[in-house]
Amino acid sequence: MTTVGILGTGIVGRTLAARLAELGADVVVGARTADSQSLEQLAELNVGTGSFADAAGHGDLIINATNGLHSLAVLESVGSDALVGKTLVDVANELQPVEGGLPKPVVAADASLAQRIQDAYPDTFVVKSLNTMGCHVMVNPSIVAGDHTVFLSGDDAGAKQRVQELLASFGWRPEQMLDLGGIDTAAGPELMMTAWIRVMIARGFDGTFNWAVNSA
Ligand SMILES: NC(=O)c1ccc[n+]([C@@H]2O[C@H](COP(=O)([O-])OP(=O)(O)OC[C@H]3O[C@@H](n4cnc5c(N)ncnc54)[C@H](OP(=O)(O)O)[C@@H]3O)[C@@H](O)[C@H]2O)c1
Q: Which of helix, strand or coil describes residue 28?
């Protein structure tokens, strides 16, 4: 059975946890502290809970679903020992809250969050994926019509293969998965958040859509 540590208790962490538990994975979801109130929302799921360090220590596969502005601090609190040799799927985006407005993506084209995580943890295999869509699409791609696309960026072929298997378990077909290349390509999908927010607004604040890359 796959062991998965999910860092993050927000809608993304909870949605991924529910789907993975449904698929039979052995999941622990982590928060800032093991008795964090945020973990109460997971009470009805068939998953374990704990601190971020507990979740990271549990999983062979780790998913970073924390607030992107704090992801590096979260990983620092976990420590590199729990991350060594593991695949870390980074679904986070760095969004600056805006008083009275919508959050503003703050990613820099030459310094993506995924790249900075990879630089900080060279013995961990970081794969950026799933950050370009709403979480209900992540775990159930068939809710969006057509051959829409999920991107992958990462330096390690084995880790990307592992993430592709995870995606396949959610229902993604191979032709929907687009490997962009190394982790240096992760800035692209992170920058797409600016457009994602605009499209979501244009659709009446409905985030149930996804990008499609179609070819001739
Ligand atoms: N919403 C979507 O559909 C969607 C889609 C694609 C990507 N994303 C990205 O996925 C990630 C998760 O999104 P979300 O909406 O589920 O949750 P979120 O509200 O962005 O993040 C929640 C998690 O971040 C932790 N956190 C918040 N502030 C922190 C701080 N100061 N220090 C340490 N940890 C802190 C929380 O810890 P506690 O549990 O202890 O409170 C919680 O576990 C984000 O990076 C988001 O941009 C979201």
A: strand
Q: How far apart are CA 162 and CA 169, in angstroms?
A: 11
Predicted confidence (pLDDT) per residue in 136-160, tens digit: 999 999 999 988 999 999 999 999 9
Cα dist. 110→92, 186, 199 in Å? 17, 10, 24
**Tokens standing for 138?**
């992540």
3-state helix, strand, coil split of the chain in percent (to 5) is 45, 20, 35
Give, for ligand 1, the residue of 12, 89, 107 to mutate: max count of ligand atoms closer than 8 Å to Cβ: 12
Read off the pLDDT of each residue in 13-28 and give the average, rounded to a whole number: 98
- Residue 49: helix, strand or coil by DSSP? strand
Give the pLDDT confidence score for residue 216 in this predicted structure.
86
Asked if 121 and 159 touch (Cβ cutoff 8 Å), the reply is no
Residue 127 is encoded by which pair of tokens? 């794969």
**Residue 108 in this model has a pLDDT that exceeds 90:** no
User: What is the per-residue pLDDT for 1?
Assistant: 66
- Strands 125-129, 87-90: parallel, antiparallel or unpaired by DSSP? parallel
Instruction: Write out residues with Cβ below 6 Å of ligand 1.
Output: 8-13, 31-32, 36, 38, 65-68, 70, 73-74, 91-93, 95, 131, 134-135
Distance 132 CA to ligand 1 centre (A): 15
